[in-house]
Amino acid sequence: MPEPRDISRQAFGALPDGTAVDLYTLTNTGGMSVSVMTYGGTLQSVRVRDRGGDVGHVLLGFGELAGYTGDAYRAASPFFGALIGRYGNRIADGRFTLDGETFRVPVNEPPNSLHGGDHGFDKAVWSAEEVRSGDSLGVRLSHTSPDGDAGYPGTLRVTVLYALDDGDRLSIDYSATTDKPTVVNLTNHAYWNLAGEGSGSVEDHLVQLDASRYTPVGPTHIPTGAIEPVADTPLDFRTFRAIGERLRDGFEQLARAGGYDHNWVLDRTGEPGLAVAARVREPSSGRELTVSTTEPAIQFYTGNFLDGTLYGTSGRQYRQGDGLALETQHFPDSPNHPHFPSTVLRPGETYRSTTVYAFSTGG
Fold first, then answer.
1. What is the CA angle 186-198-80, rounded to 5?
2. 1 is a domain residue
3. Is residue 273 part of a domain?
4. How many domains are there within the chain?
């Protein structure tokens, strides 16, 4: 018998200033569940079935709010499952020019700004409301970032809808408006391990990316401005390859980033709408993940900065390579590269972006 569709809300603690944090859990008729925390708009848990029908947790994170607010987490800054803004990924030297005016934003990964700085959207407590529509359940989060917040111009009003349907698809719909010209690049920083949270390395996961080009980075992980082919490099995932297969072959870009941490340019046909960006298969559990997006690119990251100082939901240590991120996005540092797809948002326009994570099991 199908399980009942359900949305539940529970108190999930409070921040040091007393602000309450809630946790919303969406459950579909197949037993898949997704938990979203109002602090940071964070995906706290995703539980899906394996090929044997057993439900397991496949997302890196913590079972308590304190895990996301403690000193060890702040020092590591892994952004587990968080909504990222105003600008996902890096901005070189923490500055950009828009309409002839230079803006300075926080440098939290010297010399660059990363994921909106030390107090980006991942540190905000979002307003939330439940949403029910057809065979899906959701939670709509909203947040207003005032003019000048973290140095960014314009009052930005952001809405993000997390929705789970009965086909085991988790969708994230982003929208934003501004009252002044600004730049926007929103994403989610979930770390996946389809073998199960805390199960160890993802190097055996098989990955396929619908991308024949990427943007190489310089010494501080900022794109050089070039857009190069992945052919004949370890960044060629046009067919399924194990993550660990070519990880240590001495390729300069992998050495520079400490592993995979690059922006792949998706082979979109030019038609608007969702297109498949990535597929992941985990052999032992049979779990498979397909990522589709309206975005032009995806950042594939293999948890290179996890150093064993954090212990997750299972109580197990998170080490380098224990999770993988697939961050759908516009290009890093786009405001400083006019030939990259624009991230400028102007008054009267609406920023819109959708990403769908579809889960299934193979044989």
1. 20
2. no
3. yes
4. 1
**How do residues 218-257 score in pLDDT, each as one tens digit?**
999 999 999 999 999 999 999 999 999 999 888 999 999 9
Q: How far apart are CA 151 and CA 301, in angstroms?
A: 27
Question: Which tokens go with 116?
Answer: 């909106």
Task: Enter the tokens of residue 43.
Answer: 């995906």
Q: Are 85 and 184 in contact (CB under 8 A)?
A: yes
Longest Cα–Cα distance of the chain, Å, equals: 62
* Per-residue exposure over 43-74, b if at least 16 CB sit within 10 Å of its own CB, e if not: bbbbbbbbeeeeebbbbbbbeebebbbeeebe
Q: How many CB atoms neighbour CB 114 within 10 A? A: 23
HSE value, Cβ hemisphere, 13 Å, CA-based, for 247: 22
- C-alpha closest to that of 106 among 85, 136, 81, 78: 85
User: Which residue numbers are catalytic?
Assistant: 189, 327
Domain that holds residue 242: 6-361
pTM exceeds cut of 0.90: yes
Instruction: Specify whether the backbone of 51 is left (phi greater than 0), alpha (psi in -120 to 50) or beta.
Output: alpha
CATH code of the domain containing 282: 2.70.98.10
Per-residue model confidence as pLDDT tens digits over 135-193: 899 999 999 999 999 999 999 999 999 999 999 999 999 999 999 999 999 999 999 99
